[in-house]
Amino acid sequence: MNDTFITKKEALKELGLSSRTLYSLVQSGKIVANKINARLIYYSLNSIRAFKAGINS
């Protein structure tokens, strides 16, 4: 299955969480993020939806 990657702003809107919480979720491996460069990170929409559904929380 193909995954869609979204910006930080879109990820925060989708989750309804703070930037710090999003960072913690990425660090714990619950949400997949791809760091393109020092300032650009994209977040996996599939992993965000799985987290919201409680699959890997």
UniProtKB/TrEMBL annotation:
Domain Helix-turn-helix: 7-53
Source organism, top-level taxon: Bacteria
InterPro entries xrefs: DNA-bd_dom_put_sf, HTH_17
Protein name as annotated: Helix-turn-helix domain-containing protein
Protein species of origin: Campylobacter gastrosuis
